[in-house]
Amino acid sequence: MKPPKTPLDYEVLFNRASTPGKIVLLIIDGLGGLPHPQTGKTELETADTPNLDQLAAEAICGVIDPVSPGITPGSVPGHLALFGYDPFSCSIGRGVPEAVGVDFPLESGDVAARGNFCTVDETGLVTDRRAGRISTEKCTELCHLLDGLVIENVEIFVSLVKEHRFIAVFRGEGLEPDITDSDPQQVGVAPKPITALNPQAGKTANIATQFIAQAKATLAGHHPANMVLLRGFSQRPQFPTVGEIYKLKPAAIASYPMYRGLAKLVGMEVLETGNSIEDEMATLKQNYADYDFFFLHIKGTDSAGEDGDFDRKVKIIEQVDRALPSLIDIKPDVLVVTGDHSTPALLRGHSWHPVPILLRSKWCRPD
C-alpha cells in the first residue's frame, strides 16, 4: 500500500470518515477515592447514584490513569490528557491557565505563577496550605496589599482567583519560567526554596524568592493568611487547538477560573454559567445546538477530597447524580463521565490511584 502523497490526503480521509454527532465530556474533578476504613466503600460507592447506575448499565465502564500509571497528576496535565493531548510534550505550569481564566492580560515574556495564601506557625512550618480557605473577599484585600511590587525592575502583579487562590505575574526583561515551586504540597514542613532549573532562569528564581520574603513581612499580622506559596511558573504556550486536531467545535462549561483558562488555551469557547451544578447543566442545554463537543467541569468533589471531608464528597457526587437527568434527556451521541485524577478524602490530596470512567454511546457495546 502506497503512503498518502500529501498531508492533505489524511485530512480528506478524516473528513470522509467523520460523522455528525454530539459529545459531552463530564469531568468530576478528583472523582477517584479510597475505601472508608469503616465501610470498605469509596466515596463513589457510598453515594446514592441511581442515574449514574443506570448510565453504567448502558455503558462501557472501567478505570484509567489519565497521565500514566503510578503518577499523581496535577489538574492541568490530567485535563490535557483527557482532551487528547500528550501531557508530557504539552506540559504547562498552573500559572498561565489561572491567569487566562481570570482574563489577566498576559504579555509576551510574562511569567505567571499560581499562588495560595497559607498559614505558617511561629517556626515557619506550613500548618494549612489554604489558610482555612479564606473568603474571596479576604483574598481580594490581601492581593491589594501585594500587588504592584517592583523588584529589580520586574513588575509583579497579584490578582484574585477565588477563595485562597491568586496569581502572581512577573513582567520584565530576561525572565524564564523554569524554576521550582515553593509549595511543598504538604503540611508540617517549611515552604521549599525556589531554585532555577537552568542558568537562564536564575533571575526569575531570585525575583520570586524576594517576592515571597516581602509577602511574608507584609502578611505577618494577617493570620491565618500569613504567608504565600507559589507553584506552576509558566509562560503562555502555543498548542494546536482541539478544533484543529479533531475537527470539532468545542465549548467549555466550568465555574472555576483555572479550568476556564485551560479550555481557552486549547481553543474552546468558554460559555458563561453560574456556580451550581444545576446552572452548568442548564448552560449545556441552552447551548446544545451550537457546538458538537462540550467539556463540563464539576469542582466540588476535588475540594471536599482535599479537605478530607468524605461525607461532603459523597453529597456532591449525589448532587451531580440528581442533576444528570437534564443531561441524559438531551441524548448526546457520546457521553463520558470520569475524573482528571483521584482525590481520596482519606489522603487529603491528589493521588496516583486510577480514576473511574463511564462511556455511553450508540457506537459502543455495553459491559
From TrEMBL:
This is Metalloenzyme domain-containing protein. It catalyses: (2R)-2-phosphoglycerate = (2R)-3-phosphoglycerate. The lineage of its organism: unclassified sequences, metagenomes, ecological metagenomes. Catalyzes the interconversion of 2-phosphoglycerate and 3-phosphoglycerate. GO terms for molecular function: metal ion binding; phosphoglycerate mutase activity. Gene3D superfamilies: Alkaline Phosphatase, subunit A, Metalloenzyme domain. Pathway: Carbohydrate degradation. Keywords: Glycolysis. Belongs to the BPG-independent phosphoglycerate mutase family. A-PGAM subfamily. The keyword Iron does not apply. One of its GO terms (biological process) is glycolytic process. Residues 22-362 form the Metalloenzyme domain.
